[in-house]
Amino acid sequence: MDIDTKCIPLGHIQTYFDLRQSVIPDADWLERRTQLITSGRRNPHELLELIVGIDQHAFYRNAHIDYQPQETGCFISTRQCLALIAQAIEALEMPYLGLAMGNLMTISHHGMAGVAAVTQANLRGCLETISRFCSELFPPLEMTGVIDCQIGKFVMSENISLAPYSHFFLELNMVSFYNIMQQLVAETGPNLTHVAFSYPEPAWGHIYRRYFHCPVLFDQPETALIGPAALADCELPLANRLMAMAAEKTLFENIPTRAIRLLPLRLRRLLVRYYGAFPSLENAASDLGMSGRTLRRKLAEEGTTYQQELDIVREKLAKQYFMRGGESVTELAMILGFADSSAFAKAFRRWTGLSPSEFLEQERMRTGEAIISAL
Fold it and tell me: Nearest to residue 140, comparing CAs of 118, 117, 157?
């Protein structure tokens, strides 16, 4: 999968970018909902006029998308999606558009995906459902629930680069899912302790504090919503197994997906399951229902190799090990299948530009800064 792979269902993207369906035609409502502070000439009245006046056909056409109302069988690429974002940010003069759009979104705005998620038995099931839907509906992003001792995280990361608008996707999803989690467990469970972003604080960093009612940390190892592990077992007030199953069935009947057929992503998910004992190419191919020769050929057609995909997974797991407090390079080298710690250290420097000891020191400094900021 690369920036030009058409794997994103247009029907899914339209729920985000048909802005006119996202707002009530009232400037005061828009100001309250987006939490924008009137300043200069971009006040809520003018902003509302701009949103209502957007020519949807031109909007999609400028991104080289053959737009059809209620289109369900068309797929677009990451490049085309980025072109949509560029137009919206430029037209509205809002570099922080992801924050505002995320706060406009409610559970119902996510459609059947939202219904399927919030009718799970507990928050763990809700986040697992969201992660699965993200893999299918927007494969450039990955969302993962992680329990690390007494800490629970909902981590968001990029499968391919979304630059220069990575912040847009992360802002939108972090605000949206923060609000949803607060609505679902505010009365029955503990609160999130803080939210973390993996990039430096942008020029509009002060605006983030309007949307999150907990500490906001930048330049962190990962982008995540973070709270006590006990949150995962909080029962959801709308839990309904039959409704969840029906909503998921309806979702995928109306919005077809391709991500499940993207071989590199399937291989990465397989390798993650084998953490600690990675299979050979031949065994991985067998698990994927094909011969080793076919796997090599299909990966080559995607512009990658088994070794490249294995290294992507190893790098991710190595970073997670260090971020979760692990410090033994020898242990990690063995877990990841390297002959010795020297071979691992060489590979780690190739991946990150840092030695394991330099990365560990960086993590210690970040952890200390996070603790100070959270106090």
Answer: 157
